[in-house]
Specification:
about 290 residues; 15 helices; about 75% helix; globular
């Protein structure tokens, strides 16, 4: 910041934009379970068709911005890291929804604030504000409430995949925070493209019904947009808060599952989700004049 503080309004505007992008991304990501469970296609078929349309949509977005060269040739080590670990995260992401409930996946993902904050502290020395620490602890307590109410019914393999997805997403958040110049579209395209040949070998994507391909096309396009907004938002907001805002999908995902798929969450899920949602809102609120 300059001595006269002239950059303060720009920083606050940049922060507000980052928060808006992250909220939009979280809302979109909360629909993942609906798309995945709303089709009969297997996990690899979902990965394939989602990936095809995500690649097309993201490449078109980069071309419209006249930044194809930068996005794909300027990724650097950070971008390649995002692409490789993101590919593993995509497999875990889709497979988790096929193996356990939407609520379980969303709840396990809610521990991302603690993981992202720890990674950021170790890797780039980013300290957490007291309020962010409090909100992270509250979010973790909310997860504890939900998991306690689900003991004995969790699918362990699906939960493990959800945990892997959480680790990947937390790492990606920290990479973009540490290297904000890293392109967002290029790594996103690469992580989907890397999985296409694997999906053909390990799955049967070409046996997917046409109507399901249409659903997965929407899945891919929407999540291409969400991936870009997540990356752009993470560049503007501290890693701990980025993960907390992303936790908005935790209460939203079970709610959508209830409304669309009639997956009825227990009282513990609703209670814990409310705690997490409150923690996210508090973490986003900033007093006028507060530094970002």
């Amino acid at each position: 910041m300059t001595v006269d503080g002239s950059s303060a309004p720009r920083l606050r505007t940049d922060y507000a934009l980052g928060v808006g992008l992250l909220v939009a991304s979280a809302v979109t990501f909360s629909t993942a379970g609906l798309f995945t469970k709303g089709v009969e296609a297997g996990a690899w078929a979902v990965i394939f068709w989602r990936g095809v349309f995500a690649v097309l949509a993201t490449t078109a977005w980069a071309a419209e911005r006249s930044s194809l060269r930068r996005e794909f040739l300027g990724m650097g080590t950070a971008g390649l890291t995002v692409a490789l670990v993101g590919a593993a995260g995509q497999v875990a992401f889709i497979s988790a929804f096929k193996s356990t409930s939407i609520a379980n996946v969303a709840l396990i993902y809610a521990i991302a604030p603690l993981i992202a904050a720890l990674m950021a502290w170790v890797a780039i020395g980013e300290r957490m504000e007291r309020r962010t620490m409090f909100c992270a602890a509250a979010a973790f307590a909310g997860v504890g409430i939900v998991v306690w109410g689900s003991v004995g019914s969790l699918d362990l393999w699906g939960d493990f995949l959800a945990l892997l997805m959480t680790l990947v997403m937390a790492l990606i958040m920290v990479v973009y925070r540490a290297r904000p110049e890293t392109p967002s579209a290029g790594p996103s395209v690469m992580q989907s493209a890397l999985l296409l040949p694997l999906a053909i070998v390990l799955g049967t994507p070409f046996q997917t019904a046409p109507q399901e391909i249409a659903i997965l096309a929407a899945f891919g396009i929407l999540f291409a947009i969400a991936s870009v907004t997540l990356a752009e938002g993470a560049k503007r907001v501290p890693a701990g808060q980025t993960a907390l805002i992303g936790a908005l999908e935790t209460p939203l995902a079970p709610l959508l599952a209830l409304l669309v798929l009639s997956e009825i969450p227990p009282v513990a899920t609703l209670t814990g989700g409310a705690v997490i949602f409150a923690a996210v809102l508090i973490s986003m609120w900033r007093r006028p004049g507060t530094k970002v």
